[in-house]
Amino acid sequence: MKNSSRRGFMGKAFGAVAGVGAVGALYAMKKTWDPLPSVKAAGFTTLDMSAYKENELVVEKWRGKPIFVLKQSQEMLDTENKNISQITGKTTAGMDKKRLIKIGDAHYLVCIGLCTHLGCIPGYRPETKDFLCACHGGMYDDTAMVKKSPPPRGLDIPPFKIDGMKLVLGEEGPEYKKMKETGITL
Amino acid sequence: MAHFTKATSVKDWLNQRLAVEKVEKVMMSEYWIPKNINFLWAMGMILVVTFALLLVSGIFLLMYYQPNVNLAFDSVNYTIMSEVDFGWLWRHVHGVAASVVFLIIYIHMFTGIYYGSYKKGREMIWISGMLLFVAFSAEAFSGYMLPWGQMSYWAGMVITNLFSGGSLHADGLVEWIRGDYVPAQAFLNRFFMLHVLLIPLAIIGLIGLHFGALRIPHVNNQDGEEIDFDAEAKKYLAGDKAGSKVIRFANDFMAKDMMVVGVYLVFFFYLVFYNYGFAMDPVNFDPANGLKTPTHIYPEWYFLWSYEILRPFSTNIGLIAFAFAQVIFFALPFLDKSPNTVPASRRGLFKYWFWAMLIDMIILTAMGKVPPVEPFGTIGFYAALTFIGLWIALPFITKMEKKV
Ligand code: HEM
Ligand code: FES
User: Fold this and answer.
1) What's the CA-to-centroid distance between B204 and ligand 1, angstroms?
2) Which residues 71-110 in chain A show a CB within 8 A of chain B?
3) A151: closest CA among B283, B151, B365, B372?
């Protein structure tokens, strides 16, 4: 009896030590899988916005991700209220301008070029002025709002800061913060 | 107390130390197999052989492969394919085996479903089998990343994105899995580790579990007959080999098994030498490029059916349907409420369920391959609904089944 209770104690003592060890080991394993600091150290990309042409998609790169820059032509701005969202069934006019970034007198669409469905890169079609994602057939209009599912929302807008005619990606300026607060982007 | 005597032969020496004769009996000569089975029961052995082929060819590929985003593509497509003598052989064997293993797994699974080999004590065989299926899927996916071509990169992007859980936006989890914002060096390195060490270890352990689970219930037979293995074995050992319903696993049954394996290997090496193209996607002969998606992304053929269940729905519903498809086969022994363990052909409605499920999965596979345009989108949508519907119907139709 005495013996077995001593064994019981030893079992519990081992269990406690092993338990602490297991939790510690799991924590270390989890942290080892984390992105490295060098990866996380936010990459900043500066774009010179005066160089873009209307209705011509340019793909830049930020943190390894493609960034779409699409300068809007007057025609694109005018037809905005004609776009109907397939998800809400309503015109997208209200949302539209809010997704664009105004620099100087021009409006730009600047967004992460990865489909919000599962991350393929949609292609821009200048004739129809929309984006088509070949992976599962998702479509976006010229301000990258969803026209056809499966994508659940428009293309995300990266953190940006306006600096004269330049745009700094990776830094959160007041215009970006406002977009985030109002739910224009995630 | 262990007592050792001077050995009279090498066998005796080993016997005293390792009980080799006993082991031989337990594992081979007195492991009993029913006589009443057909070539479909050789699929398990074919899977073992194919796994061995994957292991051996993998070891040779490993000697020249470089898990580095700048070098991986060339180490495979240049070094192994054109510099290393017979490098192409290992690559083709590995690629063909990775594809064919799934064909055999599906045949093996549907054989089990047809003959009811997942119930009456065989539940653990089924569950360990499904764990093997999951482990093989993970192994195939991680291996697909390694050549670091366009399909590697974009399949990696799309599949890891599934873990964001749709509207849950678990982007942190996705980045954790990748070790980066996008698939990059950390991603390639960790999938390399998974592919060559962790998952193969798990597979070997699971094969052991699968075999262990077979031990007590033994394999099923063509009539689902409940055989008293002890009594039949006694009959056999007493000399009534013709009257007994069982035979020895080795060498008697093995001879039959190996005959089927032989036919399979001829077919397999025909593919390796003359028809390996199906196992290598042409898009993956372009190096990975994070700024350009291939115009049409699809997984390897064996994932198409579950991919098609994801595709026709909006993100969240698609993910739920996909998750359902991934796990539902595990539940088969518990959703089948009928007491009958006989071939599907004698089971009333279940017969139709079986063929409907098989055909539906073939349709899903075909629709997963074509681009997401009409009418394929609609066909895929209804096939996905049918898949889910069949599983919901299963407990009801098997409950109504009459005992045979
Ligand atoms: C590489 C993976 C696998 C290997 C090496 C393997 C191997 C084997 C072997 C050698 C047998 C005995 C012979 C036979 O009946 O074919 C067997 C039986 C069985 N396996 Fe597998 N198997 C694998 C995967 C699976 C999977 C994915 C499933 C389905 C979930 C599965 C379900 C079964 C069932 C139900 C039996 C019993 C058949 C019966 O009793 O008639 N196995 N397996
Ligand atoms: S990734 Fe674009 S539609 Fe699925």
Assistant:
1) 14
2) none
3) B372
